[in-house]
Amino acid sequence: MRVPVILLLFVGLAIAYECPKNGRLPESCSCKETEHGLDVHCHTSQISPIFKALENKTIDILRIDRCTDGIASIEDAPVILVRNLTIQRCTFETISESVFERLGSRLRVLNMERNTFKKFPKFGRLPILDKLEIGHNDLSNISSSTFAQLPRLKTLRMNYGNLRFFPTLALLPLSGSLKTLDVSHNMFCDISAILLPAFNLHLLDLSFNLIASVKIPGFWQMTSLHELRLNNNMITHLMTTTSDMTPKLKTLNLNDNLISHISDDFFKGVKTVERLELSSNSIIQLPNISTLSNLEYLNLDSNKIDSLGEGSFNGNPKLAIITIRNNRLSHISNSTFPIGNGITMLFINNNSISTIEKGAFGTLPHLVELGLSSNNHIEIKNVTDPAMQKLLKLDLNSNRLQALNKNDFAGLVKLEYLDVRNTGLETIENGTLTETMGTVLISGNHLQCDERLEWFFKHVVKNNIKTFNDDKENIICKAGNKLVEIRLSKFFTNLAEKIMFDLFVAVTESEKDETGCKTVKAHVEVANQWITRVCEKP
């Protein structure tokens, strides 16, 4: 008897993992068989026939988007075993807790976003639910018992609602399990009720609310928190916090607020931060970040900072990326960046920089990318330094340069990308480009297209250097007092004619000595490169 029983079990399991046949699922549904169960996606369908077709099946994922029947159909539908359930855009305003309890024996992920709930539905007992997503509804009320029977809930997303008062009491049953809480895009003004000291939260998202102050000391007492998002609020000041209140915080996002003042002691309370986001505020003075010894990334874009000071980053030995674009910087000191730092990327584009002290970037031996576009007059000799031996990309777009000289990039042995568009360039001295440069963008300039620039175009052709964006090949040349715009390929054609003339002369000379033969070979090589570059384009 034992063999037939085992055989029946295998047959039953096989059937449970098979997609319904004979058109039992609505036509708008798709079904895939996976090792974890069925993966079913339906749209614009009635719920009742879906549940009936999946009765006695093992379902890994069931996603229903836009159901066409009412809430009663799901309450009367048969029980199904599903691990991950999504029911969206079904205009549900309420739902019986018995519905979820009947599905709860296997339910780990529940997504009820984009319906029309005004009050939180009663979920009943869902003993193994890990993740609940109920955002994009019209939620404004939560009772103290809403989450009382969700003992293992780790992720809760109730964003894009109308919550005005933080549901601290309602969340208390989740204090031991909840790791991620997303209440962004609501209507919170006051954080005095956001007191979560006993919680094990790793991520708290309060972005896109109406919070104006974070002065409440109790707010910062989250000892397990790794990431805090307060961006897109109305915060104006960051005041002193008690030391070590968030001892595990790694990411602090305060972008897009109204911050104009940061207390010198503020960062003592969050000194474990590795990523600090402060862009799009009204900060005038570079904040004191000397206590952030683990800081790796600093974003101060779009503020009103006019100076980086001296030694401002001495307390940040792990700092790798600094971005301070779109501020009011005018001067870069040679004492701004500490010797022996690990900075790899520095972006100070869109400022008003007119003075860079010699050696200002020479203390950045690990720098890979430097952005200086859209400033004022930049002296290249003060930007580049032989110590910058790892620099790959240099952006000088939209500054005033006029000329590139032979030693401007001396020592930059790995420089691959140079952007000098819109810089007023007229001349490029012979030998300026290094062997490693594969991209030299020069559009938007008025070049002196005469014999002084001939070497440049030969070099470009021979080394297949990209000089223009793919969709722009026009070059503007100075011809006396006139500006003439021609296509780059036409310029190469004119150049080729001169190369062929030089070749003819060289052939004549080659009859006289061995040096002439070498000259012929050199001209032939350039001519072949030109043919590949211009004549044989796909």
Integer average pLDDT: 86
Number of distinct helices: 9
How is the main sheet built?
Answer: 19 strands, mixed
Q: Count the beta strands.
A: 28
Q: Give the uncertain stretches in residue-range form.
A: 5-13
Class per helix and strand makeup? alpha/beta
Helix content: 10-25%
Strand content: 15-25%
| Global morphology | globular
How far is the N terminus from the C terminus?
73 Å
* C-alpha-based Rg, rounded: 33 Å
Signal peptide: 1-16
Protein name: LRRCT domain-containing protein
Keywords: Leucine-rich repeat, Repeat, Signal
Pfam families: LRR_8 (PF13855)
Could you characterize what this model shows?
With 538 residues, the chain is an alpha/beta fold. The chain has a domain at 495-535. The chain is 18% helix and 19% strand. The protein is built from nine helices and 28 strands. The protein has helices at 2-16, 47-53, 71-76, 97-103, 168-171, 380-383, 454-463, 488-510, 514-535; strands at residues 29-34, 37-45, 58-67, 81-88, 109-111, 131-133, 155-157, 180-182, 203-205, 227-229, 237-238, 251-253, 261-262, 275-277, 297-299, 321-323, 331-332, 345-347, 355-356, 369-371, 393-395, 403-404, 417-419, 427-428, 439-441, 446-447, 474-479, 482-487. The strands form five sheets. It has a 19-stranded mixed beta sheet, with no helix packed on it. Strands 26-27-28 form a three-stranded mixed beta sheet. Strand 7 (155-157), helix 5 and strand 8 form a beta-alpha-beta unit. Helix 7 packs across helix 9 and helix 8 runs antiparallel to helix 9. The chain is globular and about 95 Å long. Residues 5-13 have low confidence and may be disordered.
